[in-house]
Amino acid sequence: MTNLTNLGFLKGAIMETIVSTYNANEQPNAAPMGIKTEDMKHIVIQPYTSSMTYANLQSKRCAVINVTSNPELYYRTAFKEANPGGRTPLEWFEKVETVDAPGLRMADAFVEVSVLDIKSLGAERAEVSCDVQLIKTSSFLPKVYCRATFATIESIIHATRVKLFLAGDRQKQEQARRLIELIEHYNAIVNRIAPNSRYSAIMADLTQRINSWKDES
Ligand SMILES: Cc1cc2nc3c(=O)[nH]c(=O)nc-3n(C[C@H](O)[C@H](O)[C@H](O)COP(=O)(O)O)c2cc1C
Fold first, then answer.
1. Is ligand 1 within 6 A of the CB of residue 74?
2. I want to staple 102 with a disulfide (CB 3.0 to 4.6 A). Which of 56, 79, 93, 153 is the partner?
3. CB-based contact 26:8 (threshold 8 Å)
4. What is the pLDDT of residue 140?
5. Domain 15-137 falls in which CATH fold?
6. Given this model, what pLDDT does residue 15 score?
7. How far apart are CA 118 and CA 97, in angstroms?
8. What pLDDT does 87 receive?
9. What dihedral angle (degrees, nearest 10) is formed by the CA atoms of 148, 152, 158, 160?
């Protein structure tokens, strides 16, 4: 079995991944989550307690941590409403070997984990400590670096917070405004680096979504 070091994990650093789980009714769910390891054997996830991922980690006590830098996967798992029918396509998921959680077929690697402990981090967040059961890599080719890939993923991360902050108090709304400025900056980069691409389409879609949240707030 390969290890977290070979996948590029760094001790104590937040790494962005997509965590997939089964709901109580056995429907697969996936959401981007930042995760951390301190010893390359255990992984800590800090989900918002309002997320479906948190509820599933509590009930199923396991997950698959999908390693990917594909913006499409981040976008359509962060914003389920960006999918036809409002849910991540079922055919994106497959069964994995050691835990009762689905993996994302298009991921570069699966890290299958079982939950050891769940601690509260105040009203909004929890800390879920996990034990690595199995790591499986796909036979993927190395990927060339493109600024648009990362600018798109950064924008998706900011946008998940914009939605939350726009619904908050004045201070939160100010934070939302700053994040929107950053997304506008990334939008300009994506449109210069990769015009007429899937990335520019995601950025256009995000911009439209942000405008509709602004109208609602
Ligand atoms: C790259 C990235 C990292 C994220 N990290 C976290 C995280 O660590 N914890 C969290 O609760 N939400 C995080 N989010 C936001 C969730 O993915 C988002 O709220 C999602 O809709 C939750 O889906 P769920 O309700 O199906 O779990 C992140 C989003 C992105 C794009």
1. yes
2. 93
3. no
4. 74
5. Pnp Oxidase; Chain A (2.30.110)
6. 96
7. 23
8. 94
9. 180
Q: 52, 67, 156, 160: which to mutate for ligand 1, most atoms within 8 A of CB?
A: 160
Structure-block tokens of residue 97: 């070997």
Q: Are 66 and 104 in contact (CB under 8 A)?
A: yes
pLDDT tens-place string over residues 41-66: 999 999 999 999 999 999 999 999 99
155 within ligand 1 shell (Cβ under 6 A): no
Query: Residues for the chain: how many in total?
Result: 217
Report CA(194)–ligand 1 centroid distance (Å). 26
Q: Identify the pLDDT of residue 216.
A: 86
User: What is the CB neighbour count within 10 angstroms for residue 167?
Assistant: 13
This model's pTM is above 0.85: yes
Per-domain boundaries in the chain: 15-137, 147-216
3-class state of residue 133 by DSSP: strand
Question: According to the model, what pLDDT value does residue 143 have?
Answer: 86
Q: Closest Cα partner for 70 from 136, 138, 135, 165? A: 138
CA angle 150, 35, 145 (to 5 degrees): 20
* DSSP letter for each residue of 38-102: SSSSEEEE--BTTSHHHHHHHHH-EEEEEE---HHHHHHHH-GGGSGGGS--GGGEEE-SSSSSE
Tokens representing residue 197 in the block: 């691409």
